[in-house]
From TrEMBL:
Highest taxon above the source species: Eukaryota
CDD domains membership: RNase_HI_RT_Ty3 (cd09274)
Descriptive protein name: Putative reverse transcriptase domain-containing protein
PANTHER family per the UniProt record, alphabetical: ENZYMATIC POLYPROTEIN-RELATED, RIBONUCLEASE H
Keyword Transferase set for record: yes
Domain (Reverse transcriptase RNase H-like): residue spans on this chain: 39-133
Gene3D superfamilies: 3.10.20.370
Keyword Nucleotidyltransferase recorded: yes
Keywords, ordered alphabetically: Endonuclease, Hydrolase, Nuclease, Nucleotidyltransferase, RNA-directed DNA polymerase, Transferase
One GO MF term attached to the UniProt entry: hydrolase activity
Amino acid sequence: MRKGEKFIWNEDREKSFEELKQRLVSAPVLTLPSGSGGFQIYSDASKKGLGCVLMQHGKVIAYASRQLKPYEVNYPTHDLELAAVVFALKIWRHYLYGESCDVFTDHKSLKYIFTQRDLNMRQRRWLELLKDYDTNIQYHPGKANVVADALSRKSGMVAGIKVEEEIIRDLERLGIEFLVSGQHGY
């Protein structure tokens, strides 16, 4: 719509409005992993924190974020983006170890990390960790990496996800059936 143009409410606008209302009232739901394989990680880093999303077959399994530690604030962008990938692999290792996983990052050069020659000790250590996993690092433009981008900038948004996962695991071990409901899954 342009400035000065007369606004006319029509069927297309009504349909868009109804869809928007529906999306605003239905929160995204976290699901438990189903079987194996088909995992994707979307990761991002900013000067404030690291953020990542674990998905399987197009459904969100978990969100995670954290603030940068004081010594990480001085890391170059390349190292921060790699730190976000390592962060995701470490916290979700129980899902990802032994499974193939596509890692999407908005930092193009991470695709070529395994072929780079001049690496510092931190990068070498992280590469050794990456080699333990069956990962395929792919470039994903920043504009499309919205959720991980938001998590990296506001790292306190998703507190409690790790605690929730531990509770779910404890309930499963005890053989207790449960229903996850509510806006935040608890």
